[in-house]
Amino acid sequence: MTEAAAGERTNWGMVFLAVAAGMMAAAHLGKVPPVLPVIRAELGLDLVFGGWVVSIFAATAMTLGVFAGNVVDGLGYRRVILAGLAAVTLGSAAGGFATNGAALLASRCLEGLGFLAVMVAGPILIARSTFGAERRLALGIWAGNVPAGVAAMMLVSPLIANWAGWRTLWFVVAAASLGCLAFTAAATSRDTQASVAAPESGSFAHNLRLTLTRPGPWLLTVAFGLNTVMWVGLIVWLPSFLIEERGLGAGAAAALSALVVAVSVGGNVLAGWLLQRGWARWVIIAINGAAMGLAALGIFSDAVPDGVRYGLCLIFSGLGSMVPAAVIAGAPVHSPSPSQLGTTNGLVIQGANIGVFLGPPIVGALVARTGDWSAGVWLMLAASVATIAVALAIRRVEPSAAAGD
Predict the structure, then answer these.
(1) Tens digits of per-residue pLDDT, 163-216?
(2) 133, CA 20 to 30 Å: which among 99, 126, 201, 358?
(3) How many Å apart are CA 51 and CA 124, to the nearest integer?
(4) CA–CA dist 327, 348 (Å, integer)
(5) Could you report the per-residue pLDDT of 260-276, keeping only the tens digit for each?
């Protein structure tokens, strides 16, 4: 990617349109955890099935990420974003009518496909609407769309559900998604490049071969996966820890956990700003790895006061969220060409969701095996060290790849 040519200006309207679409898609992920106990009781779901209602998004993305990216390369980001918003709208509306676990899970599969489509196509809209250093800042802002959407819904969904039930919540989010779909369709209708294939877009096998034979996309994917193993491994279990070990009520635990999620938005934007200022990607990723590992030592230690431990959770989430922005901004740098940008984004999203899928059960298994929440620190430390190692590897391959960034 090259610096802006004369007369080329970043279209910030398109950037914030993409971020809004991403937040809307992420809202469908965040609406579930606060009301899952009510859903389980009404539909008779056990813990395992209830877990799948949440994790089906990650399962979809970790199996179909690269394929979805190639679809974007072939169809254009506008069609894919609109299809994704349509899918989450229909899935949420259908879920509101679910009378059993199978029907609800099927609707969540449709929502998961829509979420994946928006997550893969959104960065391409931004990459084609921005130039030079502003692209790095814009992609950093984009990286905050998931935690922002999830945190907002973690706060709002209990209010709507307590007022009118979880089914009404599903319908309200579907209506909001429909509104976002209509606005996005209208706002991008004059973009002549939005619905065309990437330049010289090849077959899926061709794009996949070019992407997978470069070290850069692999290193970005692993870095993102290690980050989500740690971040999600803590966030998913934080409410349970606050309730079971510290005796907090469900409302207080949800609010404190939502704040930990929300501060990650600042880390995403900070990373984008640092990239815009010329910081090396590998430095940001290495700082992330070190910060998360050091914070985890205090978070999982019973010798540290609770107030300090919660403060470390905020640091863990805030500084730890710098990797997504650095990685997503690196996709245009390490993609073999603009024709494979969607495929590269898909691979990166796939790696992130493998981490989402694996992090919580690994922490759960460590705690169950030892009977002690502090056992979770071993996963955090291992992933922290691995993140630093990957950052150093990115340092070796970045200069030539980033020459035209």
Answers:
(1) 888 999 999 999 999 999 999 999 887 664 554 444 555 667 787 788 888 898
(2) 201
(3) 31
(4) 8
(5) 888 888 888 888 889 88
Distances (CA, A) of 317 to 228, 271, 312: 11, 13, 8
Return the exposure string of 305-328: e unless at least 16 CB atoms fall within 10 Å of the residue's CB, then b: eeeebbebbbbbbbbbbbbbbbbb
pLDDT tens string 124-134: 888 888 877 78
Reported as a single tens digit per residue, the pLDDT across 78-92 is 888 999 999 999 999
Report DSSP state, residue 217.
Answer: H
Q: How far is it, in rounded angstroms, from Cα 190 to Cα 11?
A: 13
Q: Based on the number of CB atoms within 10 Å of its own CB, is 404 exposed (0-12), middle (13-18) or buried (19 or more)?
A: exposed
Can you tell me the distance from the alpha carbon of 304 to that of 127, in angstroms, rounded to the nearest whole number? 44
Q: Where do the H-state alpha helices sit in 11-46?
A: 12-30, 36-43
Q: What are 214's two structure tokens? A: 């470069």
4: left (phi > 0), else alpha (psi -120 to 50), else beta?
Answer: beta
Report helix, strand or coil for 402. coil
- Asked if residue 18 has pLDDT above 60, the reply is yes
CATH superfamily of 12-401: MFS general substrate transporter like domains (1.20.1250.20)
Residues 300, 89: Cα–Cα separation, whole Å: 39
- Which two three-digit tokens encode residue 300? 């999982």
The answer to whether residues 300 and 376 touch, using CB atoms and an 8 Å cutoff, is yes
Cα separation, 257 vs 234, whole angstroms: 10
Residue type, 269: V
CA 84 centroid distance within chain:
15
- Cα 131 to Cα 67, 134, 135, 139, 190, distances in angstroms: 27, 6, 5, 11, 20
- In tens, the pLDDT along 303-354 reads 889 889 899 999 999 888 889 889 988 888 888 877 777 788 888 888 888 8
Residue 88: per-residue pLDDT: 96
User: In the chain, what are the domain boundaries?
Assistant: 12-401
What residues contact residue 373 under an 8 Å CB cut-off, 6+ apart?
241, 245, 300, 367
Nearest CA-CA partner of 73 in 32, 120, 30: 120
Q: How far apart are CA 348 and CA 328, in angstroms?
A: 8
3-state secondary structure 129-194: CCCHHHHHHHHHHHHCHHHHHHHHHHHHHHHHHHHHCHHHHHHHHHHHHHHHHHHHHHHCCCCCCC
Span 391-400, mean pLDDT?
Answer: 83
User: What is the value of pTM for the model shown?
Assistant: 0.78
